[in-house]
Amino acid sequence: MKIRKNFMEGLEQKVYIHENKKEELILIAIPDIEWSYLFTYEDDDIHKNLIRSLKRAVSDEKAEVISRRILQWTREM
């Protein structure tokens, strides 16, 4: 599991990223906003789906920023 720090509006949020290579899954969780998301390596349009899910927990602008960061972090793995 990787833990990244996301800074939004002067606040630090921990982003937990778990990769299950055997099942080809990635689980993302941000406890501070009570949000989590699971996707597979083969999922189409992950960025769009992340934004849609994040919009339930944060504003549209924050959802866009957080989703871009998550995509960058998961590509590094």
Highlighted features:
38% strand; 2 helices; 34% helix; single chain; globular; 77 residues; alpha+beta; 4-stranded antiparallel β-sheet
Please characterize this protein's 3D structure.
There is one protein chain. This protein is of the alpha+beta class and 77 residues long. It has one domain (2-76). It has two helices and four strands; from the N terminus they run E-E-E-E-H-H. The protein has helices at 46-54, 60-76; strands at 2-8, 11-20, 25-30, 35-40. The chain has a four-stranded antiparallel sheet, with helices on one face. Helix 1 (46-54) crosses helix 2.
Structure summarized in a few sentences:
It is built from 2 helices and 4 strands, in the order ββββαα.
The DSSP helix count reads 2
Instruction: Report helical residue fraction.
Output: 25-40%
Radius of gyration: 12 Å
Our measurement of the CA-to-CA distance between the termini, rounded to an integer number of angstroms, reads: 10 Å
Number of strands: 4
List low-pLDDT spans.
none
How is the topology of this model organized?
Blueprint: E1 2-8, E2 11-20, E3 25-30, E4 35-40, H1 46-54, H2 60-76
Antiparallel strand pairs: 1-2, 2-3, 3-4
